[in-house]
Amino acid sequence: MDGLLTIGEVSRRSGVASSALRFYEERRLIESERAGSGHRRYPRAILRRIAFIVFAQKVGLTLAEVGDELAKLPDNRVPARSDWAKISGSWTKRIDERIAELERLRAGLTQCIGCGCLSLQQCQLANPGDRAGRSGAGPRYWIADRGKGKG
Questions:
Q1: pLDDT in tens, 28-52
Q2: 119 in the Ramachandran plot: left (φ > 0), alpha (ψ -120 to 50) or beta?
Q3: Model confidence over 21-30: pLDDT tens digits?
Q4: Helix (H), strand (E) at residue 67
Q5: CB burial string 97-121: b at 16+ within 10 A, e below
Q6: Half-sphere exposure of 148 (CA within 13 A, CB side)
Q7: Residue 59 needs a FRET pair 20 to 30 A away by CA distance; which of 36, 99, 129, 138 works?
Q8: Where are the domains of the chain?
Q9: By the 8 A CB rule, do 84 and 118 touch?
């Protein structure tokens, strides 16, 4: 078991809490070996896998989606840069969508969110006659049918 890292070492080096590492292991996103004492030991390559998990979550993937992506990696060798590039290449659209949503949110900080409140002077201009309210409850310009009813 030489060269293997303890869960504490992996936590420190990856920046991920030990509890999260155990959770990832329960979800079969990472694997450990057990020492004679039953303590978890990880190969150094696990740090790349954990970095991938963290990055994928920041992109917006669920842990189930992360698991699906990790399943595409080779079992018989340490994943190469090209392996990571292959599975992360499809994320560009997802990132672009998140950027667009964040830009809309930034613009919405000073504009109507389509809540139908009509309590602010600006709402009378951005949502006359509560057109957004006819599309349903809640912030109509920010949920699934965004833009409908926007005047």
A1: 999 999 878 888 999 998 998 999 8
A2: alpha
A3: 999 999 999 9
A4: helix 63-70
A5: eeeeeeeeeeeeeeebbbbbeeeee
A6: 11
A7: 138
A8: 5-91
A9: no
Q: Which residue has the higher pLDDT, 148 or 75?
A: 75
- CA 104 to chain CA centroid, Å, is 19
CA–CA dist 107, 42 (Å, integer): 46
**CATH T-level fold of 5-91:** Multidrug-efflux Transporter Regulator; Chain: A; Domain 2 (1.10.1660)
Q: Specify the higher pLDDT residue, 20 or 121.
A: 20
The tokens of 42 are what? 């990880």
Contacts of residue 131, defined as CB under 8 A and 6 or more positions apart, other chains included, come to: 149, 150, 151
CA neighbours closer than 13 Å in the CB half-sphere of residue 52: 28
Question: Cα 87 from chain centroid?
Answer: 15
Length of the chain (residues) = 151
User: From CA 127, how far away is CA 109, in angstroms rounded?
Assistant: 15
Pairing relationship of beta strands 33-34 and 40-42 according to DSSP bridges? antiparallel
Q: Is the dihedral of CA 79, 85, 86, 91 positive or negative?
A: positive
